[in-house]
């Protein structure tokens, strides 16, 4: 069977549920005119693999970030929407619900070079490949390898509660905003204690930790786009680059430069 290069600028051009194969893959190249996908869901589970740049994926009550050499797993039937940085190159792997042992909830996975190359190879094949043959055997190896992929805590809990959504929208619009919890409470006509309890009950994090995790998600996305550490630190309102690096290193165990070097 000849190679089938299934590369499109928008995932909306491809319906994975038309195929009953155990897994099919789709490569998405950078496209300045395309940055996101409307909320939708699939019969198949979906793995979104970032090859270059970054992808963010929003599901109910959480925002998941996919830095290079990682992937976010979205179980079958889960409504989600995606946003892709302008320099991003991504691969989508769609998996039949009964074809592999995968997590029941959304998560971020670290992807090995072997899994990456298998997904890329599958993206070049006809998605209607025979159920028995070379491609089907490679897919079996791919799905077995995926079941061992380590999980990474690269997500931001987000609630649909209007007060929390208001704060999140404001901080995404201006990440350098250093409004305190007490000031947010005054703006939202509630007490500081009530707002602190609301944030913790909805997200599992204190307000300070939640805002720091939001900063980490934005930092990873901007760094993956190619922005400098100094620029990102300034965008997030840090008083110094060292303060930003300290936050980043505490969260991920490495400085921004070391982190992205290890991904390469």
What this model shows, in words?
- GO terms for molecular function: DNA-binding transcription factor activity; sequence-specific DNA binding.
- This is AraC-type DNA-binding protein.
- The structure is a single chain.
- The chain has 264 residues and is of the alpha+beta class.
- It folds into 2 domains: 7-152, Regulatory protein AraC (Jelly Rolls, Sandwich); 160-263, Orthogonal Bundle (Arc Repressor Mutant, subunit A), CATH 1.10.10.
- The chain has 9 helices and 12 strands.
- The protein has helices at 113-123, 134-146, 162-173, 181-187, 192-203, 207-224, 229-235, 241-252, 256-263; strands at residues 7-8, 23-28, 36-40, 45-52, 55-59, 62-66, 70-74, 80-84, 89-95, 107-110, 151-152, 155-157.
- The chain has a 7-stranded mixed beta sheet with strand order 1-2-9-4-7-10-11, with helices on one face. It has a 5-stranded antiparallel beta sheet with strand order 3-8-5-6-12, covered by helices on one side.
- A hairpin with a 2-residue loop joins strand 5 and strand 6 (62-66).
- Helix 1 (113-123) packs antiparallel against helix 2 (134-146), helix 4 (181-187) packs across helix 5 (192-203) and helix 7 (229-235) crosses helix 8 (241-252).
- The protein is globular and about 65 Å long.
